[in-house]
Amino acid sequence: MGIAGLLVPEEYGGAGCGPAELAAVAEELGRALSPHPFLQTAVMAVEALRPCARGDGAGDGAGAVLAELADGAVTATVVLPGDGELRLTGDRLTGEVPYALEGELVLVYAGGALVRAVPSERTAYRTMDESRPLQRLAFHDAPARRLGDGTSWARVRDMGIAALAAEQVGGAQRCLDLAVEHAGRRQQFGRPIGSFQAIKHKLADLLLLVESARSAAGAAAGDPVAAAVAGSYCTEAYLTAAGENIQVHGGIGVTWEHPAHRYLKRATSDAQLFGPPQAHRARLAAHVFGEDAR
Fold it and tell me: Are residues 89 and 196 both part of a single domain?
């Protein structure tokens, strides 16, 4: 379907789409709990490489990598500053990244540059949310090819937050849909439980939460303030929707046979991916009130 190249410029074989298309696709992937590496490959890696590409469609420069990503030939992950203790010396990288999203090609921001690095060791984790694999990366004087400068990392992070927020909206919407469906089908005292006021209010509150999260996610791409808002609000909205979905379902909601637990696991892991909601709010405060905000 060309989803891998959604954000890749047309000259490198992609669709050349923007934030609106990104949000629509990410929301549907989040609704389905897709295990595909869309976030790290089609969003963050592409966003990291785009400013580095200068018509180098051949060879192994940024443009060539973009073409590979657009074709779906390779997956990628991005290591942001602060994700690990790394030292770039010439064309060699040393250090460790405790947690990184899974990807074949590794792009690293280190030493003021964006480099393509070959890990000396990879260790896969058995995660609570098995649909979002994580790995440990170790670099022991590992070869690293410079692709560009490292000034774009904040924008890459914010695009990742925007895509994740859209995924969270999709997951939260699915949780609401499952809860509404169950409330209309499950009978107690001869009536659907959705006719009881307590359930009505719970579902109405969730609807407001999900729609507000959708608005926050839609504004997130390309704006660091809006990204911080979405990172905080959409994370908490998804956690709430996933938890309330289990409550509405009752006993069946806590069994492995029902998919409700998968959404709660994804919501919980998403809440740590780019930092917890408190970290986003602290970054938002710095933007709004200045660097000295407490």
Answer: no
